[in-house]
Amino acid sequence: MAIEAVIFDFGGVLTSSPFEAFTRFETERGLPADIIRRTNAANHLENAWAKFERAEVDIETFDALFAAESLALGAEVRGRDVLPLLQGDLRPEMVEALKRIKAQFKTGCITNNLPANAIGSMTGRSLYIAEVMVLFDHVIESAKIGLRKPDPRIYQMMVETLKVDPSNCVYLDDLGVNLKPARQMGMTTIKVTSGAQAIAELETATGLKLG
Asked: How many beta carbons lie within 10 A of that of residue 202, not counting itself?
């Protein structure tokens, strides 16, 4: 198989996972374990999170919907309180790997993100994210196009824009549900659990030395 393109998710792949921040928040507040992740996972195509990532609801509506959905699962968590927990730290080793990949292959990023300004002032963070985003040949953001992973159309848009065959692509994500459509299209998929693990699997898939 000749690799033509490597396509990345952003949060949890190029940044550390927000799950660690979720766990800290729940522990500090005495909330049931994994209440945030369970709320995100329940009815995951049409829940508050999905609607917000497709920019179908504003922040006030998201806040109230998330509160109601989490309460139904055992404890109320305000949507607004979850948003600051999303800001993971960049993984420098993954950014370096991306730079080396870009020198050889086409690169893309498909990110389920939130409407601009949803997390308040992001000025400093936006600057360093912008430095990473320019490394991609094409970026698709859910909140800008009204589609989000795992909708197969978002992956199709990427391969059409990059003009590549899915069977010649590698796709990385930290969520299995988002890897499934890519795998069904014929992509080689990597489920990211850490930077070191992702880089090792990327080296195998691409034949490049990335570390």
From this structure: 26
- Summarize pLDDT for 50-98 with one digit per residue, the tens: 999 999 999 999 999 999 999 999 999 999 999 988 888 899 999 999 9
Compute the average pLDDT of residues 177-205. 97
C-beta separation of 151 from 139 below 8 A: no
How would you classify the pairing of strands 138-141 and 106-111?
Answer: parallel
Q: Is the pTM of this model over 0.85?
A: yes
* 3-state SS class at 64: helix
How far is it, in rounded angstroms, from Cα 110 to Cα 188?
A: 15
Here the tokens at position 139 are 């970026």
First to last CA, the chain: 22
Whether the upstream peptide bond of residue 150 has omega within 30° of 0, thus cis, is yes
